[in-house]
Automatic annotation (TrEMBL):
InterPro entries: G_IRG_dom, Immunity-related_GTPase-like, IRG, P-loop_NTPase. This is IRG-type G domain-containing protein. It comes from Suillus discolor. The keyword Hydrolase applies. The keyword GTP-binding applies. SUPFAM superfamilies: P-loop containing nucleoside triphosphate hydrolases. It holds the Pfam family IIGP. Transmembrane segments: none annotated. Belongs to the TRAFAC class dynamin-like GTPase superfamily. IRG family. PROSITE patterns: G_IRG.
Amino acid sequence: FAVTGSARAGKSSFINAVRGLSRNHLMAAPTGIIETTSTVGSYPDPCPNSRMIWYDVHGSGTPKVSDWKYFKDMGL
């Protein structure tokens, strides 16, 4: 699953929550109060026998990535 959306919307926090991990866990996606994700990160589901991979995608609506460019580039 790829999680996309606006910058600072909580995409990384959401990925950690559905994986049942606190933000301090070694396998957690990095989170912060400023935009933290700059490249696509992949995070395996911590449940045994799960083949699920979570993809954390950088946000839109920033000086570096405008909303229209983000959604066009992501094919949304």
